Amino acid sequence: MRILAFDTSTEACAAALGDGTQWTERSVHAGSRHSELLLPMIGDLLAEGGLALRDLDGIAFGAGPGSFTGLRIACGVAQGLAFGAGLPVLGVASLEAMAEAARAKHGWTRVVAALDARMREVYLAAYDLEHGDWRARIEPCVLPPDEAPPLEGRWHGAGNGFAAYPALRERLASALLSCDECTLPAASAVGRLALPRFAAGEGLAADHAAPLYVRHRVALTTAERDAGERL
Predict the structure, then answer these.
(1) What distance in Å separates the CA atoms of residue 40 and residue 45, rounded to the nearest whole number?
(2) Among the listed residues 38, 2, 33, 39, the one whose alpha carbon sits nearest the alpha carbon of residue 17
(3) Is residue 219's pLDDT more than 50?
């Protein structure tokens, strides 16, 4: 089974093509240029693999939470490509992809994933690995860093939420063994999580794809914009 996977939920634009055994991956710091970079990146991956979209078995995307604009881009691109090629789609929680990326990099099996959600909040979830599957012990949520729920046992932190808000690390200090503030929801991690779900028949029709926003605000007040806040 071969799938295309990508994530634009953070300032990185990442895409990967693979079958579970081997992944070809691209990732660049995009800032706000995801819409310019993602499709050419996908085209390069397909050309390098000598494949067309119709040769694939599915398209997976980082569904969020994360940047509102980034999530809409990822979902829209997944829908557009899937419609044209007649492929199923699957959204993968970006925080779960961060846990999987931390496992691949460090071997961690209990991960608290945190992304800077701006507006003095973090996107947060906690996952542990059981029999090869990630189980959410804290479902993806958005909250002030000093209101993060307590954790039992020992965990590892992953993501820029820990860098942006030292209060989060302080809040979870008794449970944290270590922390990698640079962990991102890698496209290959999105792909590894999606593959068994596609194999189990969980892929959706393109028009059923949807972002996982968690925070449902789509605009800032004038005062918040003047203060430099971002969604």
Answers:
(1) 9
(2) 2
(3) no
Domains and CATH numbers, the chain: 3-94+185-226 (3.30.420.40), 95-180 (3.30.420.40)
Measuring CA to CA, how many Å separate 74 from each of 4, 88, 204? 12, 15, 15
Cβ proximity of 134 and 49 under 8 Å: no
CA distance 179 to 111: 9
Indicate the pLDDT class of residue 230, thresholds 50, 70 and 90. low
Query: What pLDDT does 215 receive?
Result: 83
Of residues 29, 35, 186, the one with CA closest to residue 113: 186
Measuring CA to CA, how many Å separate 185 from each of 51, 151, 170? 25, 22, 23
Answer whether 14's CB lies under 8 Å from 32's CB.
no
* CB distance 71 to 9 below 8 Å: yes
Is pLDDT above 90 for 131? yes
Contacts 24+ apart (CB under 8 A), 131-138: 134/96, 134/99, 134/100, 134/193, 136/96, 138/112
Work out the angle between the directed axes of helices 187-199 and 94-106 (0-180°, nearest 10).
Answer: 110
What's phi and psi for 24, nearest 5 deg? -105, 130
